[in-house]
Amino acid sequence: MKIHILGICGTFMGGIAALARAEGHEVSGSDENVYPPMSTLLESQGIEIQQGFHVEDIPADVDQVVVGNVMSRGKPVIEAMLDKGIPYTSGPQWLFENVLRDRWVLAVAGTHGKTTTASMLAWILEYAKMSPGFLIGGVPENFGVSARLGETPFFVVEADEYDTAFFDKRSKFVHYHPSTLVLNNLEYDHADIFPDLESIKTQFHHLMRMVPGKGLVVANADEPNLQDVLDKGCWTPVESFSSRSIDANWRVKLLEPSGQQFEVQFEGESLGVVNWSLMGQHNVSNALASIAAARHVGVPPQHAIAALNEFENVKRRMQLRGEVGGIRVYDDFAHHPTAIETTLSGLRKNVGNQKIVAILEPRSNTMRMGVHKAKLADSLQLADEVILYQPEGLAWDLDQVTEGLGDKAKVYSSVDKIVADMAETSSTGDQLLVMSNGGFDGIHDKLLSALESR
């Protein structure tokens, strides 16, 4: 079958391309942002990629076009596709029909932690010799790829609530039909898609309607919004988890404040200790969810704990990009006030009184719209210094955030100026935490180079 993918260089659609190629299909694609590492990864698999969205890039003998959710009516390539009657589908629908339909799907949903938890879960199954397939919105260091078919019925998927395509406004995750469902958390996000939190809860409720009675829902007891979803209707057994003091089936006893060592408990019984390099209570919570989900498919918790002790995290999730003269540069995907706060909290507990400089690019659609601007200053309080990058096209003024942070916050409109100032003022022991859901103009490598050459 000959497939062409519109929007192929996104992590999700790139994963679809890799899975389609692994199934033996002839795959091509196009995107406006064709650059490494996704472009080189796909090209290494024999997938031809075109820059931009042009009608002529769709092969004349194509069997099906897989349309990414970056596409919209009015784009010439979409109008031509519709006018010519070329068969098309969405990425999530293609995934279900070609990969997931006859498999045991373990889906990880929630506002935060989907990528990390799905990566943990896939690694636990791999460690248990279960060779799962997976499609994850990031690159787990233990695997080095974001998607693979696997060799057994088990398939782990990051279940995103974002909409599916221009012709299907349901959330992506309603296509996946999981037997094991992790509900990590639920907050308001994706303001470009959802008018309010209740509309997101409705999509989660639709997802709940698809989990079979013999399945399992693993739900975070620390999240009241998830309880609202369960109260709307649940026809599946539920196991709860809590990384705090809330009563739940799965709990922890922190042995280090940073979250780098903790005891796992199920129904009050100690099952073992996770001792790893990850930081933060949010990652403790992610670990509990992955252990519980893996148990549902037959992995003993003790084996899951042993696997997590060898878990290497995900690229761009508190990833240490380098250290120069005792100055550390981290890369993190945080782009929501809650994620920013929890990331800073984990780092603070790990480094104590050492100076933390938070360097933030408000790049997500929701951030660019200013939906979370009232919460942003509070989420950054644990940093000693805050650098805010004001990109072109931001719908609001970042000076509104600095008012809540006082003298420790500055707004920049130039990445090179940020790099120059950090190179001049940073000293041994400083932690430079870069947060963005985009490339941030390569600021991480620029910082390390500037620190090396000063």
UniProtKB/TrEMBL annotation:
One of its GO terms (biological process) is peptidoglycan turnover. Residues 108-294 form the Mur ligase central domain. Its EC number is 6.3.2.45. Residues 316-438 form the Mur ligase C-terminal domain. InterPro entries: Mpl (IPR005757), Mur-like_cat_sf (IPR036565), Mur_ligase_C (IPR004101), Mur_ligase_C_dom_sf (IPR036615), Mur_ligase_cen (IPR013221), Mur_ligase_N (IPR000713), MurCDEF_pg_biosynth (IPR050061). Pfam families: Mur_ligase, Mur_ligase_C, Mur_ligase_M. ATP binds at residues 110-116. Keywords: ATP-binding, Cell cycle, Cell division, Cell shape, Cell wall biogenesis/degradation, Ligase, Magnesium, Nucleotide-binding, Peptidoglycan synthesis. Residues 2-97 form the Mur ligase N-terminal catalytic domain. Gene3D superfamilies: Mur ligase, C-terminal domain, Mur-like, catalytic domain, NAD(P)-binding Rossmann-like Domain. The keyword Cytoplasm does not apply. It is an enzyme of class 6 (ligase). It catalyses: UDP-N-acetyl-alpha-D-muramate + L-alanyl-gamma-D-glutamyl-meso-2,6-diaminopimelate + ATP = UDP-N-acetyl-alpha-D-muramoyl-L-alanyl-gamma-D-glutamyl-meso-2,6-diaminopimelate + ADP + phosphate + H(+). Its cofactor is Mg(2+). One of its GO terms (molecular function) is ATP binding. Pathway: Cell wall biogenesis; peptidoglycan recycling. HAMAP family: Mpl. Reutilizes the intact tripeptide L-alanyl-gamma-D-glutamyl-meso-diaminopimelate by linking it to UDP-N-acetylmuramate. Belongs to the MurCDEF family. Mpl subfamily. This is UDP-N-acetylmuramate--L-alanyl-gamma-D-glutamyl-meso-2,6-diaminoheptandioate ligase. It comes from Leucothrix pacifica.
